[in-house]
Each structure stands twice: as C-alpha cells, then as structure tokens.
Amino acid sequence: MPALEDFRPQEAAWRALTADELPHALLITGQPGCGKRTLAMLLAQRLLCEAETGEKPCGVCRACLQCREGNHPDLTVIRPGEPIAPGEDKGKKSIPVNDIRELSRIVSRHAYEGARRAVIIEQAEAMGPAAQNALLKTLEEPPAGVTFCLTCVSAGLLLPTIVSRCREIPLHAWPESALRKALDETGADPRRAEAAVRACGGSMGRALSLCGDEAWWERRNQLLEDFFALPNRSAIPRISTRLREERSEASEQLDTLDGLIRTLLMASLGRNPGSDLSEYPEAWQRAAASGHYATFVRLADAVAQTRKMLDSNVSIQALWEKLLLKFMEERSQW
Ligand SMILES: [Zn+2]
Q: Which of 94, 227, 247, 248 is buried most deeply by CB count within 10 Å?
C-alpha cells in the first residue's frame, strides 16, 4: 500500500496530508495514473483512523482495514459503474443523480463510529449537470464532520460553482526519483523499470502498468530496432507501413520513443552516470558518450512535432516516414 511519505514530492497533496484540519471539500485533479484515487483514500483513512498516537493513517487499526476493504460504515465511495442508489444499473459510465441524492441522505445521518464521515467521488466529471447541481446543494450546506473528496482530470470539467466550493489539490507529473522508488518497491526488473520511468510521462499508474506489460515491452524493443538500427532509406516504407497499422498505439509509441531518446540525452549530458545503454546500437552509444546532446534535443523536438500533427490531416504514415528520415539524417552527421 502506498504510504503517506510517497506523496512528499507532491506539494499540495503533502500539505493536505499533514494538515491538522481539512476543509470540508477537496478536489484532487491530475492526469490519469497520477495517484488521485490513492490520495483520496489516504485522506479519507487519515480522517477515520483510530490510532491514538503516531502517524495517521496507521494502516493497521480497525478503521484503516475497513477503509481498505471498502466496508467502513462512515466512508462512502461513489464512482461510475458502481451505483450506491438502489435500482440503478451497474456498469454505466456516468454517476446518476440518484447516487448523489442517496449520498445526501447518508451524510445527513450521524456517523456510526465517530464524529467524522468521509465521502470520495471518483471521476467527478462523470456526474451530469443534474447530479452536479444536487451535489452543489450538499456542498453549500455541508453537514458537520463530513469531508468530501472529489477526483477529476481537470477542474474545468466541473461546474465552476462546485469547483469554487472545493480546495483544489493538483497532482503533477511525478519526479523520476519517485517513480524509480515506487517501481523498485514492486521488485520490477531494473532495466524495465528504467524504461517505464522514461516512457510514462510522469504518471505513476502508467509506470506501474508498463513494467508488467509484455506487449508494451515488445513494442518498445521493436521501436528501438526500427528507429535506432535503421539500415537504410529503403527500409523506411516497411517500417512506416507497420506503424500505420498500429494507429491506435501512435501516441504511446511516441511516448516510448521520447523515453528512448531522453535516456541518450541524459547520458550525453553526463546525468545518470552508469545508466545502461547496451541495448542501443554502438553508434548511438558513442554519440551519447561523446556528448552529442544537440542531436538528442532535435530528435525529441521532432517527436513532439509529430505528436502535434497526429490529429491533423497529414497521413500518419507520412508522419512516421518523416520522423524515421530525421533519425537517419541525425545519425549520418557523426
Ligand atoms: Zn488507522
């Protein structure tokens, strides 16, 4: 289970986790995989934890265990697809207004165990206007002792009236050191962990899932071969055709490629000494060792440009060909 301490690199989260008191409504925002749900659960557990001394949540008291198992009587979790209101269909992508009405009933009662109650609403953007307006009424006149914790990719997806009643806790991209530490704790293979750290775009959840994803690892190794061991121009159409067929993976492929370039960039700048470049063809290893960092900056820019063009009218195969040519061009300069 992630510990409180893991959130130290996230300033706003850390402040909330170490505060004596919390406002009655919090809104945790950030990209998928950044830890919103984990943080919401830690905050709820902190409120309900029964430990008398030491750090909260303690993780071992009855309340902490109940929270984790999802059966603490004073913790209500609402998320799309798992309605709490009787008679609502399961598996829907939205949060029905009846869930929010049910929630209002629950929070208006006294807490069972103590004076506090916690409410987590995951993917709050899944509430339609009716549900959001129903929630607004509760947030406007909050019952004593209840803390609401909403999670959402971006505050802009909610009614401004909801947002203005919450304190926002933005979660940002995780620093590489924090990602490495988390992967290390799962016992991941160090080389895979390093590749996942580079390719996850700062998303903790993505880093964790990439590490165990065989198909991703295969795609990554294929990209390594396609872009860094490109024999000559005549190989380009074959590679770009394959990449075109993997259209749905394009954004991920660009992340992966970006990670592969950044590993060389960091090495060329003398950062991460001792990082293992042995899987790159020798010419690239030499380029990194002799400080050709400008090459890697230009290639990273080319990847970013390609990403911008993904939704344009330019054919995806043409985009990949241009990128492959750029790799050849840079390679030919040393
Ligand atoms: Zn506890």
A: 227
State in Å: Cα 54 to ligand 1 middle.
10
Q: How far is the CA of 53 from the centre of ligand 1 (A)?
A: 10
pLDDT digits (tens, 9 = 90+) for 233-278: 899 999 999 999 988 889 989 999 999 999 999 999 988 766 789 9
Residues 6+ apart with CB under 8 A from 69: none
Determine the distance separating the centroid of ligand 1 and the alpha carbon of 176, expressed in angstroms: 30
Confidence (pLDDT) at 171 = 96
Packed helices 190-199 and 250-268: angle between N→C axes, nearest 10 degrees:
110
Q: How far is the CA of 181 from the centre of ligand 1 (A)?
A: 24
- The per-residue b/e assignment along 6-17, b for 16 or more CB within 10 angstroms, e otherwise, is bbeebebbbebb
Which has more pLDDT, 115 or 278?
278
Query: In the prediction, which pLDDT does 326 show?
Result: 96
Phi, psi of 246 (to 5 degrees): -100, 40
Please tell me the distance from the alpha carbon of residue 99 to that of residue 102, in angstroms, as a whole number.
Answer: 5
Stretch 76-96: mean pLDDT: 93
What integer pLDDT is reported at residue 2 of this predicted model? 66
Domains of the chain: 4-170 (3.40.50.300), 213-331 (1.20.272)
Cα–Cα distance list, 231 to 226, 234, 288 (Å): 9, 8, 20
CA of 18 to the centre of ligand 1 (A): 15
Task: Please tell me whether residue 25 adopts helix, strand or coil conformation.
Answer: strand
